[in-house]
Protein: Septum formation protein Maf
Amino acid sequence: MCKAMRTSAPPIILASLSPTRAQILAEHGIAFTQMDSGFDEESLAVCEPAKFAYIACMKKLESSLELLAKQGKYDHALDSGLLCADSVVSVDGKLLRKARDKQEARNMLELQDSKRISILTALAYKSRHISFTDLSACHLELGKFELDDMLGYVDSLAWQGKAGCVMVEGFHKRYIRRQIGLESSALGLSIEKLARFWEIV
Structure:
């Protein structure tokens, strides 16, 4: 596991309430605080998966800076560094966002069954002197879902808040036959890319 080179830096601001992204930062020894970006992804009328992830991420960055400015914390945010991210799932070129109910969740899972899915994660980091953006993809070749297992996952509601209802660390893990790309990208934050950037600068 790589450790990001920020031992003497103040905690960054993670503009995401995702517990998985928070866990990734914590596991890599990165001090941080969390906030809601305030951006509603549903307001985006974009259907192309990669484009959606990138635009949503940049909109989250813009929205977060506006919120921090209103709170008188803009300078603090730039001194600390602000991190935003967005992930979407693509199956056969179709964009899958977050399911709104159980039926939609089941439909998404049925679409993924025995397929190759792509998880696209965009991230943006901005501080006073540097900025970094990245768009990464992790491709997963999935086996056949067991119906009872899938229905149990739907009923558990563990898919809530997850793009395409994909839970790499949970339900989907046992069905992954092949992975191409970083697991962190599949989890929603390509930390290796960010860590490498910090090492360079």
Remarks:
- The two ends are 20 Å apart (CA to CA).
- The beta strands are 12-14, 32-34, 82-91, 94-96, 116-126, 131-142, 176-180.
- Residues 49-70 form the longest helix (22 residues).
- The mean pLDDT is 93.
